[in-house]
Amino acid sequence: MMSLLERIEVDAYEQHINKYEYMLEPRDLGAEFKLSAVKMNKKLEELGLQKKVGKSWIATEEGQKISVRNKFETPFFTGYNLKWDVVKVRVLMRSVNS
Fold first, then answer.
1. pLDDT, tens digit, for every residue of 7-47?
2. 52-58 contacts: CB < 8 A, separation 24 or more?
3. Domain hosting residue 77, numbered range
4. How many CB atoms lie within 10 A of CB 74?
5. Total domain count, the chain
């Protein structure tokens, strides 16, 4: 039997969706669910998709399947964050809320 993430992957493939097409940072992903970036990060942690190490969020083994590590730069700071596959996170959020 396929896991939920495997079923989502098959659905995306059948719909010809590029897996990097809908990747969002927690701030933008949270807006999809009417959550702040802080609350979205906590929700991703509750779902077992990421964990906090020091001041950084790191994708878990399961989270690595639906996220990419993204380098960003501002005039004052350079670092990395995670971008999440919004379609897959949306399905996971619905499955735990139903």
1. 555 555 555 555 556 789 999 899 888 999 999 999 999 99
2. 56/80, 57/26, 57/81, 57/82
3. 4-97
4. 7
5. 1
